[in-house]
Amino acid sequence: MHKHDSALGLATALRPVQPVTLLRPHAATRAARFFAEKFPGRSLYAVKANPSPELLQVLWNAGITHYDVASLGEVRLVAETLPGATLCFMHPVKAEEAIAEAYFTHGVRTFSLDTLEELEKIVRATTAEDASVATDLNLLVRLRVSSDHSKLSLAAKFGAEPNEVKTLLMAARQASDALGICFHVGSQAMSPAAYAEAMSRVRDAIVEAAVTVDIVDVGGGFPSWYPGMEPPPLSAYFEVIHRSFEDLPISYSAELWCEPGRALCAEYASVLVRVEKRRGDELYINDGAYGALFDAAHIGWRYPVRLVRAEDSDVKPMGFSFYGPTCDDLDRMAGPFELPADIASGDYIEIGMLGAYGCAMRTGFNGFGVEDRVIVDDEPMASLYVDEERVSRSNVVKL
Q1: Of 266, 292, 357, 303, residue with least CA distance to 30
Q2: Residues of each domain in the chain carrying CATH 2.40.37.10
Q3: Cβ atoms of residues 18 and 286 within 8 Å
């Protein structure tokens, strides 16, 4: 893989025709070390955010040893890429065949569930040919919690209802070696209160079911920085989670887990695109909704952008929308994306924070799926990790 000092160095040297993904392994390393060292428990990387084998290796080297996998494909990928990793199958609805292969072939022992039906499926799928039932399962019951504090809700699809939790916890306790409770407050949680409120639900569930809980998994939702979405420092989230965990009626040996995805990989990658046409405040670029900008098109996500030009523009910025390269009208990113008003065809734009979900969502629709990848040495366009001793919004680096 080629290497350049910066997006500008790449654009100047190569004048690329296709979009180029700019990879910053040092940024992912910094994020992983922050979670490994600062989170008051165990951090599992949520592979769906970016399943790149190169990124998985970077995170492993930085101290992330456990991985949240949601499909058999992710199980196989991580098992092949990181043979020593511990895999946790955290999708609450799994095919019985996938459970069996995960357990017997890949050594997966941790599974999540939110119904008695799923519990029965896990027990069946992990029963040996001689009819002996598995005695080494870590079973985590997923609670339904609010996503009110998050930009993207995850409250509708999964999670046991309050009137189901007691029965489910008691049944899972009988089938497990270690019993856990997990939840997900939604993606891009903008307040630590999201975790405090969810942990209150955990407390109620433990008290009502009167079971011994060995694992509490607070899931994902840890934020990154985007225009208009400026979260508190991650340390504030960790403090609230730790305080809430300490107040739970659990044993001293119980474990605290989390499942960061976006927070570990958003800063890992950006995309360099070329402007192919300008029409007023609309820019036609060579990547879009069917490439790395799926979220910008379909849920209105705004990403940091900057003009990549040898000479800085002193022209006042204005808001632009983007059209992607396909023939589809839906290939539009409304923005607004703030760029100098003199931007023109042939200019390059760096779009940041696309290591999370952007790289994972690419398709080859309309023949526009080609892209190069290079490593760059400069800092990401925004970072919550620049100084671990001073993690605060005031220290976010914006280039």
Answers
A1: 266
A2: 3-22+269-376
A3: yes
